[in-house]
Every structure is written in C-alpha cells, then in structure tokens.
Design goal:
The chain is about 40% helix and about 20% strand. The chain is an alpha/beta fold. The protein has 2 domains: about 260 residues, 3-Layer(aba) Sandwich (Rossmann fold), CATH 3.40.50.2000; about 210 residues, Rossmann fold (3-Layer(aba) Sandwich), CATH 3.40.50. Helix 12 links the parallel strand 16 and strand 17. The two termini are about 20 Å apart. The C terminus is likely disordered. The structure holds GDP-alpha-D-glucose. GDP-alpha-D-glucose (GDG) binds next to strand 13, strand 14, helix 11 and helix 12.
C-alpha cells in the first residue's frame, strides 16, 4: 500500500475550515495558522500532502489540492474518537502532564484505547498517501504513537517527529501508566525534534529509565542505548533501539515568519490608542484561553499594582485577547470563569464611566488587527506557567524592529531561552511579575536607551532565527539522519 506523495505532513488538525457560501452551500477553505506558516513553504516546495482531521466529527471531505499545489487529505473521526482521543487523552491527560501538572491529569484506560485507535487511523491514511521512500513529518503530542506504527506498516518511510509542547522531567512523566508505549511510539521516528535542549534531556533521561525497566507490560526486553547530549539544530544525541536502528534527537526552537509580520499603518495604531482613551501606557496579553498561560495571575498582578498606586488607573490600560479554546473541558471552563470574574472585578473597582481599565476580548481576531494590537502595545505580558515556546512573544518582538516597546516574559516559556533581554518573571510569584511589569514600564519612561537596546537585541534574535531556519534545519536533519540505515530494515 503506497501513494504518490514524496513529502507528507501529518497533524491532528488539517489547516481548513468549513465555511458557508452566500447561497448556503458549504466549502472547505484553507485556514492559515502558526503551524501552517511554518510548514507551508516546505509543503509547497515539495508539492506535498497534509494529512489531518478537518475539525468536524463524522464527516470528511474528499482530498483536495489547494491553489499552491498542496494536497489536503482528511482523516474521518467519530464523535467518540474526538471525545476520547482529543478532549480526553490528548487534552485532559497529556496536556496537563506535559505542562508540569498545573492541573491534575486524568489517567483513563478507555481514553488511552481510543488514542491508540485514532493513531492507527492516522497511520492508515498516511500509509495510503505516502510514496515509496517518502519523508513524513509527524506533528505533536496527539500523534506520538504514529512513528512506531508507521515504522511497522511502512519501513521504507523517513519519519521526523516534532513536539510543539514541553517534554516534562522523567520523574513526572513516570506517572503515566502508558509511558513505555509512548516512548516506543516516538522511537519509531528517524529524528525527534523538541523546542529546547532541556526537553531533549528530559526525553533522553526517560528513555534511559524506561530501558532499565524489566518485566514490562509489552513483554519486550528493552535494549535502548542512549548516547550524546542535547544540541540545537544538530543531532547531538542518538538512541539505538533493540534492532540497531539509530534515532537522532535534537532541539529545533520554532519561530515565526518575520516577512508575514509587516507593521500596520501608523494611523491604525493611533486610532486604536484613541479608542482606548489615549492612555500613557498600554499593556497587552494575547493567549488561547488556557490555564497554562497564566492569564489570571497577570490580571491579579495588574489589580494589585492599581491598588497599591504603582500603576495609575487614569494612565494605564490592559488589553487582553483570550481566544476560545477546548471549551468543553472542565478545567478550561473554570479558567474562563476565573478570568472573567477578575476582569469584571478590576473594572468595577478601577474603571471610569466609558473608560475600562481592562479591555477583554473572548474571541479570535483577524491577523491584521492582532498586528495593530502588538504595534500599539507599550508592554507585552507573557506570563505562562509553562509553554513549549510561545510565539506571541516572538510576534510582538517582530513588530518592534524600531526598538520601541518592552516584553515581560515568563522564565517558564521556551521563548525565554532565546529572548533573554526580556524582563523575565516567575509567574508563580506575583511579586516577581509585579517587579517585571513595573521595571518594564519604568524603563520606557526613564531608561529609554536601555529598553531600546533590549528590544533591538531580541529583534535581531528573531530575525536571524525565523521559522524558515526551523523548517530547513529539521528538514536537513531528517534527510541526513534517515539516510543512515533505516531503508529496507525489518520492522520492529
Ligand atoms: C503551541 C505551544 C508553541 C492567538 N490569538 C489569536 C491568534 N493567535 C495566534 C498567535 C500565535 C498563535 O495563535 C499562538 O501560538 P503560541 O505559541 O503562543 O501558543 P499555543 O497556541 O499554545 O501553541 C506553544 C506553539 O505550539 C508552536 O510550536 O510555541 O508553546 O503551546 O501565532 O498569533 N491569531 C489570530 N487571532 C487571535 O485572536 N489571528
């Protein structure tokens, strides 16, 4: 069973939306997002294929080619698949576990079974579309069993896997009843990519520990050999599997497409600041409404700074865009109601008639409006408790190539490793967030040269390490590493 596509990306979600035409008929249209921006140029270059779920249960449109020549190949999932695989195992088990237990993960063996079955479904679709010897890039935590299943179904494929979220420490990970199956699934790849060297180290340590386990429930003796150290964009570490196959592991910090971040017109920025009442200082938060992002902590910090007089409600405004996310999951509902209660309370306490201190949007806004918000903001607040990378921080920096603005950044966001000139904070410590916010605001007023230097240094970093570097280094690593000895080997 093989298809004709030499380059295949597989992700949980296909980059399409179901839209309704004026005459009431429906059509699938491509929907660009961060992942799409990263992968699209490579797909286009190879005239490749994207395999994924179209976002609506129980139906799947026929495969179709976009005007850029990329083939979109839908995977059909039932409502039960969606609930067990996506809402359950992916987002109520793996997501909290991989984000260091900010909320308690649920370990449910029925969800695990559905996760396995859905990974098998994805594997069947990939096996159908991928040409002999094709390169397949598997994306993210929803599809961690896919490399192993594909290796068995199609040993001819070159498989790269990239994880977009953190990989937690081995001691935490070992809570997962199916830890060993996931490690084996991942090791079906030729190359495993993570954002940061520390995530690579965590994975290698877990692999060592799993290989030390005997009497495992899969009944397979482990003979994994882990060698080398985590490196950036270069295979530094290898894991040798029981059958002698080598898997390369490295860090590939993801980034943004700087060319797509053209600054808005000055009058749009001025108009937005006018709508906000022309405050002296505009603070901004942009996040999916997710408990990992620390939105509530940010609001509580703002409230305490207003209360203490460190910030003057007549001179400052906070804009918070909170994009709806995973709304049927209980912890997301709780996070939303806590955020909205805080917004209401803070405005109740500090707003003037017709002039809120917190402007809160619970919806997704168009990309061009988002760029205007970034450009208009004096201080960007990224206060995630844990974040694989955080592209919002990089997008903000991209729009401040003139050295204006300042960034308050959680030290637990992957981006802090690269954007070290940000005003770093510990989001678990309100005093630390407060200090960073006050320092950032103060720097703009009293130390503009220092603030400018910091922003320009971060802008250089983002310019020199954009998403094209991420894609090309991952691509060349997959190509060179999978060339070694995988083709034609017997499956495990
Ligand atoms: C995961 C990892 C990692 C947000 N609101 C709107 C909007 N956005 C866009 C932003 C940005 C993207 O969504 C969010 O990306 P982040 O990286 O900040 O966060 P996650 O969604 O959690 O992404 C993360 C990433 O994968 C990539 O590997 O960095 O750590 O958790 O691009 O601009 N876009 C529009 N309207 C909105 O209202 N148009």
């Amino acid at each position: 069973m093989s298809g004709t596509n030499n380059f295949v990306v597989v992700a949980n979600r296909l980059p399409v939306d179901l839209t309704t035409r004026p005459d009431g008929t429906e059509e699938w249209t491509p929907s660009p997002g961060g992942l799409v921006a990263a992968l699209w140029p490579v797909l286009q270059e190879h005239q490749g294929c994207w395999v994924g779920w179209p976002g609506v249960s129980d139906i799947a449109p026929a495969s179709f080619r976009t005007s850029e020549g990329v083939l979109l190949h839908p995977v059909k999932l039932t409502q039960a698949d969606f609930e067990g695989f996506y809402e359950g195992f992916s987002n109520a088990t793996l997501w909290p576990l991989y984000h260091d237990l900010i909320v308690q993960p649920t370990y449910d063996s029925d969800w695990w079974e559905v996760y396995r079955e859905v990974n098998l479904k994805f594997a069947d679709e990939v096996a159908e579309v991928a040409a002999e010897g094709a390169t397949v890039w598997v994306q993210d935590y929803q599809l961690q069993l896919l490399p192993g299943i594909l290796r068995q179904l199609r040993p001819d494929l070159k498989i790269g896997f990239f994880l977009h979220i953190p990989f937690p420490g081995a001691d935490l990970y070992r809570q997962l009843p199916w830890r060993e199956e996931i490690v084996r699934g991942l090791l079906g790849a030729d190359v495993l990519g993570f954002h940061l060297p520390s995530y690579v180290s965590n994975f290698l340590e877990l692999t060592r520990q799993v290989s030390g386990e005997t009497g495992s429930h899969t009944g397979q003796p482990d003979e994994l050999l882990v060698e080398g150290e985590a490196k950036i964009r270069e295979i530094g570490a290898t894991v040798t599997t029981a059958d002698g196959r080598k898997v390369g592991v490295a860090a590939f910090p993801i980034s943004i497409d700087l060319n797509a971040m053209q600054p808005p017109a000055d009058e749009d920025v001025a108009q937005l600041r006018g709508v906000l009442g022309n405050p002296e200082t505009v603070l901004l938060g942009v996040d999916r409404l997710d408990y990992t992002k620390g939105i509530l902590q940010r609001l509580l910090t703002f409230e305490e700074l207003l209360e203490s007089g460190a910030l003057d409600p007549a001179k400052v405004v906070l804009m918070q865009v909170a994009t709806p996310s995973r709304e049927r999951i209980e912890q997301y509902r709780v996070a939303r109601s806590q955020v909205e209660e805080a917004v209401g309370r803070i405005n109740g306490r500090f707003a003037q008639m017709g002039r809120p201190v917190v402007h809160y949007l619970h919806r997704s806004i168009p990309k061009n409006e988002l760029r205007t918000l970034y450009a208009a903001a004096d201080v960007m607040l990224v206060t995630a408790f844990k974040d694989g990378m955080n592209l919002v921080a990089k997008e903000y920096v991209a729009l401040h190539g003139d050295g204006s603005g300042s960034l308050v950044l959680s030290e637990f966001a992957g981006a802090a490793v690269e954007l070290e000139q940000a005003y770093l904070c510990n989001p678990h410590d309100l005093e630390s967030i407060k200090r960073a916010v006050v320092t950032a605001v103060d720097a703009l007023e009293h130390y503009p040269d220092s603030a400018r230097e910091r922003m320009l240094a971060m802008h250089d970093q983002v310019r020199e390490h954009d998403v094209h570097l991420w894609a090309s280094s991952f691509e060349s690593s997959t190509a060179s590493f999978s060339g070694q000895e995988t083709a034609g080997e017997s499956p495990r």
